[in-house]
Design goal:
Layout (H helix, E strand, L loop, with lengths): L1 H9 L2 H7 L4 H9 L21 E5 L2 E7 L3 H8 L8 E10 L11 E6 L2 E6 L1 H12 L6 H12 L14 E9 L2 H5 L4 E5 L8 E5 L2
Antiparallel strand pairs: 1-2, 2-3, 3-6, 4-5, 4-7, 5-6, 7-8
Length: about 210
C-alpha cells in the first residue's frame, strides 16, 4: 500500500507540469491514477494583494494596474508558470467615481512593449495556452472544467456594470513573448471603459 501511495505522489499533476517533459506515456499513467485536473488552481485570496504602482483616471473611473511577473507566486497560485508559457497577467483595480453605473463590456486593454503591441485575451484563451505549453492531453472532463472555472475566477469581471462608488479588481491576461513579459518598458493602454466613450489612458507598468 505504501508503494502505491508513493507512485501516486510521484505521478501527481504538479510534478508532471514542472517537468514539462512532453511524455505522453507519463501523463497517461498519471491519468490512470486519478490526476484528472490539468491544473490545481487556487482561488482568492491565495493570490497576494498588489502594490499598484501605475495609476490613472479615465471616464471618472480610477484605474490601478500591476503586472504580476513573480513566477514563483504564479506557480503557487495557478500550478503553472504563466510567464514561461507566454501569458502575462496584469492585476487591475477599478473604482467608479461617477454618479452612474459604468458598462465595461466595450473595454479595451493592450500591452505595449519593445516587442510590439498585444491585445488582452479572454481567460479561457489564456488557459488554453497553458494546456498547449505543457502538452497536457490527459485529464477528465470534470477536472478540466474545475481547473478552468478556478482560473477564470481570477479574471476581472467586465460583464457586470460597475456601480457608482463601487470598486472591483481582477486579472487581465495577455499573450506575449516570454522576453517581453520578463523585460522592462511595459505600458498598459486602456480605452472605452464606458461603452460610448473614446477616452484612453496609458499606464507605465515597469
Amino acid at each position: 500500500m505504501l508503494g502505491v501511495a508513493l507512485i501516486k505522489l510521484f505521478l501527481c499533476r504538479r510534478l508532471v507540469s514542472r517537468l514539462i517533459a512532453g511524455s505522453v506515456s507519463l501523463l497517461a499513467v498519471a491519468g490512470v491514477f486519478g490526476c484528472g485536473k490539468p491544473f490545481n488552481v487556487k482561488t482568492h485570496p491565495s493570490l497576494a494583494g498588489s502594490n499598484y504602482a501605475a495609476k490613472g483616471t479615465i471616464d471618472e473611473i480610477a484605474v490601478e494596474a500591476h503586472a504580476i511577473t513573480d513566477e514563483d507566486l504564479l506557480y503557487d497560485t495557478f500550478d503553472a508558470n504563466l510567464i514561461a508559457a507566454g501569458v502575462l497577467p496584469v492585476r487591475i483595480a477599478l473604482t467608479n467615481g461617477g454618479g452612474d453605473a459604468a458598462d465595461l463590456k466595450s473595454s479595451r486593454f493592450e500591452i505595449q512593449s519593445h516587442n510590439g503591441r498585444f491585445k488582452s485575451v479572454e481567460a479561457r484563451k489564456a488557459f488554453k495556452r497553458l494546456i498547449s505549453y505543457y502538452g497536457i492531453s490527459v485529464y477528465s472532463k470534470s477536472g478540466y472544467q474545475e481547473s478552468l472555472e478556478a482560473f477564470v475566477f481570477h479574471s476581472l469581471d467586465l460583464t457586470t456594470p460597475l456601480a457608482a462608488a463601487q470598486s472591483r479588481q481582477g486579472l487581465v491576461f495577455f499573450l506575449v513573448p516570454v522576453e517581453a513579459a520578463r523585460g522592462a518598458g511595459l505600458t498598459l493602454d486602456i480605452r472605452r471603459l464606458k461603452s460610448k466613450s473614446d477616452q484612453a489612458v496609458s499606464l507605465k507598468l515597469n
